[in-house]
Design goal:
single chain, alpha/beta, Aspartate Aminotransferase, domain 1, Aspartate Aminotransferase, domain 2, 2 domains, seven-stranded mixed beta sheet, globular, disordered N terminus, binds pyridoxal-5'-phosphate
């Protein structure tokens, strides 16, 4: 939908976030149907559900999907299709949306990292696909900057490769050799590393080494979805179940046509490969596509304002409480969304942050948030419309209780 049409449609809707079930245009980003289910499986099994004031965390089940994504999943669950055809057709659409040559839906960004690396190593050689993670006949090293060498590189080592850590340009040039298979870049670590994204891509081209970027949680701003393809990264990996609010167990691998074809040889529906356990079925592949499409066509300015307004409601509820300090920031990279940090003088508000969070978790409704021993950290982008008021009231109530 074009931006103008989005705005036109918006004008016929009430402005508040309370328009249940029609929020796909408003881009509330989440399923907002509150209709009572025939069978409440959470209640039946005694599973705690909660308001997510934390953000997109795997342990907290990530995000909620758009009604239209859920509809897609429900509809596609009732018909058969071959996985290859679904991947072909969806891949072509995703590639077009994100200005890439080709794309596939993976079982999360982690799986995109594994399958993309596997594709680089094996190419379309079926024999090599069967040999992974044994690399006797393949290249075996991936170059990673020291500041980028976090836990996520474990995805790459699943293929059998060795991570070679470098820090300076000089070290990079020394480290390149005939065993260098790929150069990996972790977008959120970009500002901390010595070599920046553009230079990383140029170095890859200079040495004819494929480059991969992990931008799992970096789908805001929306232009990031094509920025790195246009910059020249050979492979780009994104999470489906974070900012994109798609299926939690889906992700996207996009990039060069030959590399995506090679990655698919390492993935289901084919077996006898290291990716066989990273299955995505048609429901998730199609759901991922619809989520991406909805995300891109969202009114991003309006969406940002909704997130900011929710943060303001929560901040305003607590900032005048004696001893309480609040700040609103936006992370420079990754999870770019307004973020509220609350801290307090323990002499005036006599409760630890850990106990505070535990109390909110135990409450009804239960509320989850992030933070350390000295602060609470709250985002509003994974909340359902109106939940900010509940969180605001609860925050104020608990802080005041601890103040008296
Ligand atoms: C979340 C994350 C991943 C893993 O993504 P999934 O979609 O959960 O598989 C990989 N890399 C980074 C930087 C992440 O933040």
């Amino acid at each position: 939908m074009k931006r103008r049409e989005v705005i036109k449609n918006l004008s016929i809707l009430p402005v508040s976030g309370a328009v249940l079930g029609t929020s796909s245009v408003l881009g509330a980003g989440i399923l907002s149907s509150y209709s009572a289910p025939k069978r409440d499986i959470f209640k039946e099994l005694g599973i705690r559900t909660f308001i997510n004031a934390a953000g997109t965390y795997t342990a907290l089940s990530g995000c909620l999907m758009h009604e239209e994504v859920v509809e897609t999943i429900r509809y596609s669950a009732k018909k058969y299709a071959t996985i290859d055809e679904v991947q072909d057709k969806v891949g072509a659409k995703i590639a077009e949306l994100c200005h890439a040559e080709s794309a596939m839906v993976t079982a999360g960004c982690w799986s995109a990292l594994v399958l993309g690396t596997a594709g680089v190593l094996t190419g379309t050689d079926q024999k090599k696909v069967a040999e992974l993670p044994h690399l006797e006949n393949m290249k075996s090293e991936v170059l990673v900057q020291k500041e980028h060498n976090h836990g996520y590189v474990h995805a790459l080592t699943n293929t059998g490769i060795k991570v070679v850590e470098i820090e300076t340009l000089e070290e990079f040039e020394k480290a390149v050799n005939e065993q260098t298979a790929m150069m990996w870049f972790l977008n959120y670590a970009g500002p901390n590393g010595m070599i920046k994204d553009k230079e990383w891509v140029e170095l890859g081209k200079k040495h004819n080494i494929p480059t991969m970027i992990d931008m799992a949680a970096d789908s805001t701003p929306v232009t990031n979805l094509w920025k790195f393809n246009e910059m020249g990264f050979d492979l780009v990996c994104v999470s489906g179940g974070k900012g994109l609010t798609g299926p939690q167990s889906a992700g996207i691998l996009m990039g060069k046509k030959d590399l995506i074809a090679a990655a698919r040889l390492n993935a289901p529906p084919r077996g006898g490969n290291i990716g066989r356990g990273m299955k995505v079925n048609k429901e998730e592949i199609l759901g991922m596509y619809v989520a991406l499409e909805k995300f891109i066509n969202r009114d991003h300015e309006k969406q940002w304002k909704i997130w900011e307004d929710r943060i303001a409601v929560m901040e305003n509820a607590v900032k005048t409480i004696n001893g309480v300090t609040t700040t609103v920031t936006v992370p420079p990279v990754a999870n770019i969304t307004p973020t509220l940090t609350i801290s307090w003088d323990i002499e005036k508000v006599k409760i630890s942050c850990n106990d505070f969070r535990a109390n909110l978790r135990k409450g009804d409704p239960s509320i989850e948030m992030m933070g350390g021993k000295d602060n609470l950290v709250i985002t509003s982008w994974m909340m359902r419309p109106g939940e900010e008021k509940i969180v605001a009231a609860k925050l104020a109530e608990e802080l005041k209780k601890a103040s008296s």
